[in-house]
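Lecture notes, unit on protein representations.

Consider one protein chain, 207 amino acids long.
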Amino acid sequence: MIDFLTSALATLLVVADPIFLSAMFLGLTSNLTPKDRREVALRGAIIAFCILGAAGLGGAKLLELLGISLSAFRIAGGLLLLSAAAEMVFDRRSQRLQATAETAVTVDHVRNIAAFPLAIPLMAGPGAITAMILLAGKAGGRVDLLAGLFGITALVMLACYISFLMAERISKTMGITGRAVISRLLGIILAALAVQFIIDGVTTLIG
C-alpha cells in the first residue's frame, strides 16, 4: 500500500510539475485580476482532477473494449512518459506548452482558460492521463488502492492550485535558472519511472 502510494505520488507529481506550471499559469493570466486568477486556478484544478479521475476509473475498461492488454499499454505508456521526460530534460516541453498556451489565449482569450489550456493539456495532459491509467491498472481492482490513488491525485491537484496562487512569488524566488534546473531533475526522475513501467510490462508479457 505504502509503496503503491509513494510511486503514485512521485509519478503524478513529476508529470504534473506544479513548479513549472506556475510559470505557465503566470503567463496565461497576466492580464487578469487577482480574483479572476484565483477562480481560474480553482476551476482548472477541479477540471483536471475530474479528467484524471475518469481516466483512472474507465481507462482500463476502454482498453479491454479495444482489445489492448494492460502490459502492452504499460510499455506504450512508458515510452510516452519517456518522451515527455526527454522533453523536460532537453527543454523542449516548455517551448511546446508555451506555444499551446499562446494559441489558446489568442483564440478564446480568457473565458475558457481554466478548461483549455490550463486543465488540459497543461495539467491533465497525455503524460498524466497515461500515468493515471497505468497506476489504476497496477492497483489491480483493489478498492483501497484506488481510493488512495484518487486521494493522491487530489493532493497533486491541490499542489498545482497552491503553486498557481503563489506563482508570482515562486517566479521571483527561483528565477529562470532555478526553474530550468528543477525541470531537468524532474525529467530524469520521470525517465526512471517510465523505464520501470516498460520493465513491468515486458516482465508481465514474458511471464
